[in-house]
Amino acid sequence: MEYIDYYKILDINKNASADDIKKAYRKQARKNHPDLNPGNEEANKKFQQINEANEVLSDPEKRKKYDKYGKDWQHAEQFEAQQQQQRQYQSQGNSGNGYSSYSGGFGGDDFSDFFSSMFGGGGRSSRQSPFKGQDYNAELQLNLLDAYTTHKQTLTVNGKQVRITIPAGVENGQKIKLSGYGAAGANGGPPGDLYLTFKIKDDARYKRKGNDIYVQEDVNLYTALLGGEKIVETPTGKVKLKIAPETQPDTTLRLKGKGFPVYKKENQFGDLYIKWQVKLPTNLNAEQKELFEKLSKL
Amino acid sequence: MKNNLISIEDICVFHKIEIGFVQSLEEYGLIQTTIIKKTVFLDYDELTKLEHYIRLHRELEINLEGLHAIAHLLNQVQNMQQEITFLKNEINYYKHFNLH
């Protein structure tokens, strides 16, 4: 547990007036408020520190105690004094000087251990207003082909089992909101939300670009030259494709509507592109070499 | 449909806000309300937005003009983040196929 310099957090000096503290708090809060920094964990953490610093420094009694014992808070003698003061604080009740906390993210547990050891659980202002619970952020890893179909998955969120439907066509990095799956609200407020970010793993065979899928498929020299057929695996099953005579290497074939499903648009799909990779024969035997030589002289 | 609506009056009592604040947010186009039999309702989806504006207004003392500007800028940030995600996915595609 480390000593926390609340003055440094608010970027003020030790002689700062109550007005200076208020101004500094507002300045820092405007920069780091979670509503202005969605998804920014660092800003969220900083905002908690700013609130904690403000909670202490804006209350003359707490500030006095912090100034007196803050740096040497680990000394036993001072602990004793703190506890005595703590009882006094608890009997005093609310400081009544704090701002309401953001979206319920400030339960007692969100204050640092340092704060708790200095002021105890009852040392902070009690907030009676109803607040929405804290929002949670989580990541969910999917294989590319998992994202191809709408399916259900069971997640464990904060110890609770949540069964969610993942719509076909979700993209890597896409974030969805699951209302009410965040932390419980305070004082009768509604629960927070769960923001789920999808991380889609690369697939060895299929490459996705938007709603289109790209595949590289080998074709031997003879089929490329003379034409033929090839059975190709697609996300929806096998398809038989015709290969035109004299197909050049890297020729790309488009299968319309055989690509990825478009997110939340029923029966709409991207395209599937198949690029023919012409493979030259290796380890030619004497007869093959002779035939190729003949061919080259024609 | 009605199950997804909550009356503005209830919200104002719950959050201890003036009804005029909600009306002003609507005038600025920041939230959308629904009127059924002379009672004004808010959709649950809009409630999150309203609470977001209440917090910014109360905690940072941002006025309606400021909220309007913030909403616009946050929308731009969100669009840019989506574009970054899209571009990252594109880069990933080219990396794997070694295409230029």
UniProtKB/TrEMBL annotation, chain A:
Pfam families: DnaJ, DnaJ_C. Residues 5-70 form the J domain. Residues 79-102 are annotated as: Disordered. InterPro entries: DnaJ_C, DnaJ_domain, DnaJ_domain_CS, HSP40/DnaJ_pept-bd, J_dom_sf. PROSITE patterns: DNAJ_1 (PS00636), DNAJ_2 (PS50076). Residues 82-102 have a biased composition (Low complexity). This is J domain-containing protein. It comes from Pedobacter punctiformis. The lineage of its organism: Bacteria, Pseudomonadati, Bacteroidota, Sphingobacteriia, Sphingobacteriales.
Automatic annotation (TrEMBL), chain B:
It comes from the Bacteria. It holds the Pfam family MerR_2. This is MerR family transcriptional regulator.
